[in-house]
Amino acid sequence: MNTSNILFDAPGPKAVVRHRVYTVLTILALVGFVLAVLLRLDRNGQLAYALWEPFVTPEYVQAIWGGLLDTLKMAFSAIIGALVFGLVFGVGKMSEHRWLRWPSWVVVEFFRAVPVLLMMIFLYFAYGLGKDAVLSSYWCVVIALTVYNGAVLAEVFRAGVLAVPRGQAEAAYAVGMRKAQVMNLVLLPQAVKIMLPSIISQCVVALKDTALGYYISSPGLTFVGKQIYGEFQNQVQVAIVITAIYVVVNLILSAIATWVQKRIVGEKKALAPTPFGITDADTGATQGGGRI
Amino acid sequence: MRFTRTRATLVCASLLLTLAACGDAGSDDEGSDVSADTDAASELEDGTRMKEIADDGKIVIGVKYDQPGLGFKGATDDVPSGFDVEIAKILVSKLGIDPESDNVEWKETISDNREPFLKSGEVDLVLASYSITDERRAEVGQAGPYFLTGQQVLVKKDSGISSVDDLKGKEVCSVTGSTSIDNAEAEGMKPRGFDTYSECRDQVLDGAIDAMTTDGSILLGYAALNPDDLEVVGEPFSEERIGVGYSPESPEMCQWITDTLQESMDNGDWAKAFEATLGKSGAETPEPPQMDPCKS
Amino acid sequence: MDDVWNNFDLVVRAFGMTVGLFLAAGIASLAVGLPLAAMRVGPVAVMRRAAATYVTLVRNTPLLMVFIFVVIALPRIDITFKSIESFQEDAFGQVFISAYFFRATLALSLYTSTFVCEAVRSGINSVPLGQAEAARAVGLTFGGTMTQVVLPQALRATVPPLTSVLIALLKNTSVAAAFGIIEAAARMKYFNNRTTEDVQVFLLFALVYVLLVEVVSAASLVLERRWKAAR
């Protein structure tokens, strides 16, 4: 349903004119902006073919492709790890035992509040440098993303399980299931269905955050980009191309999330996936929290 | 391969405490296999890190890759070049290793990772415009100095900035992890930190910032690359004493490094190294600096 | 760790920078995000589409790339924001008003405003339809409907998602470390580089971040409670 139709009446003749004026003004502003950008680029010689050439030169295209694969691999490994991490601590947070609930709570809260970049810098300096280094910068990125996204997913899991109607658990207990059975056989399978879109949109978050590996020289798109503009001094062009790649990949992921939501979750009211965690579409209350 | 070598070092170091000597028994039979070129190497004492490196025939040296004139490696170069690199070659040849061969592994170090690299044994020596400070000496070994320089500022030509005073309250770029940032702040500038000097240089060239600041020797190298756009201005406002970094686990290296450097200063190799690198930008060859005595 | 305690003023100043960035970018993001949200739900189709395109583009761009655009690419085409420096004497003093601070704030705000926009939009969507219909029924225009009926209610519903956005912004200020600003993350790197006690240094910085996040959450809770009472 589209709320925007409810906020205003079907425009009368006067309003139609006014809206037309706004439309024209907006279009003029947009066209003006694009023209100004192009002019500026041209005036600074940024449209020169030589600066764009690397992106049609096979070796560099290959390097960018390699960077993209690294980026995807990092994001994928991190999400797999985050699912495990999130499942363990999400279930831990719902435990009836205080000794399990509390540490899980502390871990989740801690990793949600600490910037991913801080985590990466720490891992890199503590375990990623020197000959006895146990982690490459690649794994520093993956681990930092794993614990952060894991902490967010822990909340997603918890919210997902809580979103399963109470009657389900009650019925399961009534037929004599034990706690673990109720969780594993009844609650989690239904919760996963509800959570799937949130999990996929968390992939977008993880993918975007792989870019932070730039700061600790991990492989990936941003690193390749830095190398290319180091060689050709084409910062503007690299920024445009690398960003375009990120946006396209993310849009594909978002499209998958939408498709999954329609296909699997179907008509059932889903937890609306947002990068901040899960927002119950009706109240706007965020249960998951998280980061952009 | 390299892993076993550290192990050996560690074992050696611990054995040293109990046994008098610990060398590669058998391989060093009293100068019988000494060739004319490797006199110096054969004179190295058993059980020292120098001896181990000489016997191993391989060395890893940390240098900068982005400082023209000091340590620089272009995209198409096989090995880095510059004053730091030349000094490193003098040291390497004294270990009986051909400095032009593959047995010398050059490794890029940035300001941030020099101490970690030395401490972990990732590199054997660091010659990366590495200022000697008390703080650093508490963590790693530093011998020298083999070069004196001072912090200056690099600005765009015709910027109207002629001294450090013109930059008070203004932003200046430098590299995080270097002493330059602290010095700049003490001079009343607002330091901004990037990872490498080349990023700073780009910011200056693009007009994003008025100046970058660090050792004059580094700045001279950049000015020499872009003589039409960049210039070094002002009197040095700090004294940086550039030394050689070595592992804190091998204090015996200090005396050897100092002696080797002294020899090169006395016989003119040092001056030659300068003329071939930093001197190319027109700078006059300075007097070699007085080196610190080694502790014990 | 002694190194950190002895230079504790550096830690304090670094977090001062973090908080400064957070406040500046937070205000700017709200200032840009609110009109953006209005455009997204407004009656002019072109504006709706333009705002939606902007939001989609920027939300799917890594923050780091936004920083590269603002700090590294823009100076290439002569957009340096150096003129901001002329304000420094009279306005806010030495520390914050500088070209780099402005660029970092700009990058953070460009990015965060899109999330503010989406949070506000979800807030608007949460206002019962009847409210807007009733407002229209008594003759309010779109502007009146928005400012007097929908937005005041939407704002309440917006507090929780907006808090998440602001907490994310607080943590995102760390990205400025890679672009010249010596804030908390850059400062931690500085200490990590000088010490072997990486874990302790990390825990100290991480816990201050946790504390700051808690302060933001607490502030939002107070706000939420107060506005609830006013209902």
TrEMBL record, chain A:
One Gene Ontology cellular component annotation?
Answer: ATP-binding cassette (ABC) transporter complex
Which is one Pfam family of this protein?
A: BPD_transp_1
Question: Which species is the source of this protein?
Answer: Nocardioides guangzhouensis
Main location as per UniProt: membrane
Q: Which GO terms describe its biological process?
A: amino acid transport
Presence of keyword Cell membrane: yes
Cellular localization per UniProt: Cell membrane
Q: Report keywords, A-Z.
A: Cell membrane, Membrane, Transmembrane, Transmembrane helix, Transport
Phylogenetic placement of the source organism = Bacteria, Bacillati, Actinomycetota, Actinomycetes, Propionibacteriales
Question: What is this protein identified as?
Answer: Amino acid ABC transporter permease
Q: Which family does it belong to?
A: Belongs to the binding-protein-dependent transport system permease family.
For this protein, what is any one GO molecular function term? transmembrane transporter activity
Q: Which residues cross the membrane?
A: 21-41, 74-92, 104-127, 133-157, 194-216, 236-260
Q: Which PROSITE patterns match?
A: ABC_TM1
Gene3D superfamilies on file: MetI-like (1.10.3720.10)
Q: Where is the ABC transmembrane type-1 domain?
A: 68-257
The way this protein sits in the membrane is described as: Multi-pass membrane protein
From TrEMBL, chain B:
Report any one BP term from Gene Ontology. amino acid transport
Q: Superkingdom of this entry's organism? A: Bacteria
Any idea which UniProt keywords this protein has?
A: Signal, Transport
* Pfam families, sorted: SBP_bac_3
Q: What CDD domains would the database entry show?
A: PBP2_GluB
SUPFAM superfamilies documented for this protein: Periplasmic binding protein-like II
Q: Where is the signal peptide, in residue numbers?
A: 1-23
Record flagged with keyword Iron:
no
Query: Which positions are tagged coiled coil?
Result: none
Q: What is this protein called?
A: Glutamate ABC transporter substrate-binding protein
Write out the GO cellular component annotations: extracellular region; outer membrane-bounded periplasmic space
Which portions of the sequence form the region Disordered?
26-48
Question: Does the record bear Nucleus in its keywords?
Answer: no
Which residue numbers delimit the Solute-binding protein family 3/N-terminal domain?
Answer: 58-281
Record-stated family: Belongs to the bacterial solute-binding protein 3 family.
UniProtKB/TrEMBL annotation, chain C:
The principal localisation class reads: membrane
Membrane topology, as annotated, equals:
Multi-pass membrane protein
Q: Which Pfam family, giving just one, matches this sequence?
A: BPD_transp_1
Q: Which InterPro entries has this protein been placed in?
A: AA_ABC_transptr_permease_3TM, ArtM/GltK/GlnP/TcyL/YhdX-like, MetI-like, MetI-like_sf
> PROSITE patterns annotated for this entry?
ABC_TM1
Q: What is the lineage of its organism?
A: Bacteria, Bacillati, Actinomycetota, Actinomycetes, Propionibacteriales
Q: Where are the transmembrane segments?
A: 12-39, 51-72, 92-111, 162-182, 202-223
Residue span(s) of domain ABC transmembrane type-1: 15-220
Q: Where in the cell is it found?
A: Cell membrane
Is Cell membrane included in the keywords of this UniProt record?
yes
Which UniProt keywords are present, listed alphabetically?
A: Amino-acid transport, Cell membrane, Membrane, Transmembrane, Transmembrane helix, Transport
User: Would you identify the family this protein belongs to, as annotated?
Assistant: Belongs to the binding-protein-dependent transport system permease family. HisMQ subfamily.
A single GO BP: amino acid transport
A GO term for molecular function: transmembrane transporter activity
UniProt-listed SUPFAM superfamilies: MetI-like (SSF161098)
- Gene Ontology terms: cellular component: ATP-binding cassette (ABC) transporter complex
Report if keyword Transmembrane helix is assigned. Answer: yes
What protein is this chain from?
Amino acid ABC transporter permease
